[in-house]
Amino acid sequence: MRPGDELPPLRIPITRTLIVAGAVASRDYQDVHHDAELAREKGSPDIFMNILTTNGLVGRYITDHFGPESVLRKVAIRLGAPNHPGDTMVLTGTVTEVDGNTVDVRVVGANGLGHHVTGTVTVEVGR
After folding, report:
1. What distance in Å separates the CA atoms of residue 45 and residue 31, rounded to the nearest whole number?
2. Which candidate, 11, 16, 67, 102, has a CA 20 to 30 Å from the CA of 87?
């Protein structure tokens, strides 16, 4: 593993069920994450994914790549374009730093509107 190495992309279909289940699982009951009519009243074309679901998907992307013994040490993400039902988010990652068994990965999750999430994940890889 070296800086510049790229992780294989992960395509995640953004379904209504994924958005609602992620919001409920993270106890985020804001109506914009489950009620399309109220989301439209607030200016959104549909419901949209919450940051905790996105954070979980970024974590899954990293641990799926580095294996079950990897440990997320830091996740710093920022949201951009919303994830709406019917779109697909493609997560990509690039190794930016390696220090022993600690790896920093720059992560981008893009959808049809642009970058949904950008950030950096520090992961301790298994021995």
Report:
1. 13
2. 67
pLDDT tens, 27-61?
A: 999 999 999 999 999 999 999 999 999 999 999 99
Q: Got the DSSP string for the chain?
A: --TT-EEEEEEEE--HHHHHHHHHHTT---GGGT-HHHHHHTT-SS----HHHHHHHHHHHHHHHH-TT-EEEEEEEEE-S---TT-EEEEEEEEEEEETTEEEEEEEEEETTEEEEEEEEEEEPP-
* Alpha carbon separation from 108 to 64, 91, 99 (Å, rounded): 16, 6, 22
- Evaluate if pTM is beyond 0.85: yes
User: What is the residue extent of each domain of the chain?
Assistant: 6-124
